[in-house]
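Quick one, tokens below:
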């Protein structure tokens, strides 16, 4: 008794959402590998050169001041611990006063996390876990509500522009262009383009401010804006850490507002781009399904070609089997040197057995009589056709 495995096989076939999830994971892994290879080729030589320069300076300083390298490295480790606690060799702004602490919690709840300021006490680290758990969740909710309102406003604006253009078309007598105005919806590409322009404008304005107040180049300021607005937060560039910024209240307020606006707009842009990526994944799945169905159909068309029959050297009669399961006797052919020549007989799509000649010098007419069957062969360029006599 045969077992029915159809239900088991159907349960093993992944759904469209699962396939999209796996495909996205594979693409992200490939994207990360490509990024790792690119950044490694770009940054690794500079890292090796910096290590060489640092070792040379350390040896020169140790030789000049007659200090062992081990003692000097021990002092540098103490300096790193002090820097982690917020102590700087140059005098700067306080890190844990009310403005500094407010800047710190802003980087926590926005998930930027520059890393310049971090709690050093055990109590502060434990409190940060619970504080960030609630604060990050509330901020993400705020970002989602901001995204909903931005998408709604942009959709209404685009729909209003489309309706206005349709009214102009009706006035010009082109009523056919405005027939589907009620069913028209704004495209995700239009919203993505508007959000990209908004993020670019905010970044350019913020970069001009940071370039003037922080002493960075404009390119470094744009780099900081992307790192901060995308909540990556490397910490190599941090705004508002100089001493003379303490008394500049306007700059502190502008810095916070630009940071908040930039993070919200960038979060909205990332969500719109993710929708486009999902559409791309759906298109890839459709293309893979189309290619698979085409391959299956092609395989079904070529399925008769897998039934091969060969003419043996011993018997003079071989049988070619086609789709209709009819058998046709084919006479072997001898060359002018009377040596046996073999043929591979492949059934065609129309049920005719085509005997393709592998090596033919001279094919002669030869009769074969056995009982009631009488066959003869004649030469053909591509295949030999059995002719009843």
């Amino acid at each position: 008794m045969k077992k029915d495995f159809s239900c088991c096989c159907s349960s093993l076939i992944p759904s469209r959402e699962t396939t999209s999830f796996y495909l996205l994971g594979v693409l992200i892994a490939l994207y990360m590998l490509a990024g790792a290879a690119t950044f490694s080729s770009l940054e690794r030589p500079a890292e090796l050169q910096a290590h060489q320069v640092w070792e040379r300076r350390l040896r020169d300083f140790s030789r000049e001041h007659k200090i062992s390298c081990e003692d000097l490295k021990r002092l540098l480790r103490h300096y790193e611990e002090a820097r982690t606690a917020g102590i700087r060799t140059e005098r700067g702004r306080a890190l844990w006063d009310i403005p500094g602490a407010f800047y710190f919690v802003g980087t926590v709840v926005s998930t930027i996390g520059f890393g310049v300021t971090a709690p050093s006490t055990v109590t502060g680290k434990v409190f940060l876990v619970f504080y960030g758990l609630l604060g990050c969740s509330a901020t993400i909710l705020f970002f989602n509500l901001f995204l909903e309102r931005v998408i709604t406003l942009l959709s209404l604006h685009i729909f209003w522009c489309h309706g206005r253009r349709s009214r102009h078309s009706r006035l010009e007598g082109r009523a056919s262009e405005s027939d589907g105005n009620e069913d028209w919806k704004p495209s995700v590409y239009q919203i993505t383009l508007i959000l990209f322009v908004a993020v670019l404008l905010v970044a350019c304005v913020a970069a001009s401010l940071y370039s003037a107040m922080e002493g960075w180049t404009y390119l470094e300021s744009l780099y900081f804006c992307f790192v901060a607005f995308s909540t990556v937060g490397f910490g190599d560039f941090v705004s508002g850490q100089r001493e003379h910024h303490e008394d500049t209240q306007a700059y502190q307020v502008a810095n916070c507002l630009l940071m908040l606006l930039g993070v919200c707009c960038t979060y909205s842009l990332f969500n719109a781009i993710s929708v486009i990526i999902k559409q791309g994944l759906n298109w890839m799945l459709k293309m893979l399904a189309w290619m698979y169905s085409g391959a299956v159909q092609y395989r079904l068309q070529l399925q008769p070609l897998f039934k091969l029959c060969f003419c043996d050297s011993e018997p003079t009669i071989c049988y070619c089997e086609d789709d209709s399961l009819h058998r046709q006797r084919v006479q072997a052919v001898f060359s002018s040197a009377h040596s046996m020549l073999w043929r591979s007989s492949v059934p065609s799509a129309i049920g005719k057995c085509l005997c393709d000649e592998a090596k033919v010098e001279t094919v002669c007419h030869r009769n074969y009589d056995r009982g009631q069957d009488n066959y003869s062969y004649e030469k053909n360029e591509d295949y030999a056709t059995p002719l009843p006599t």
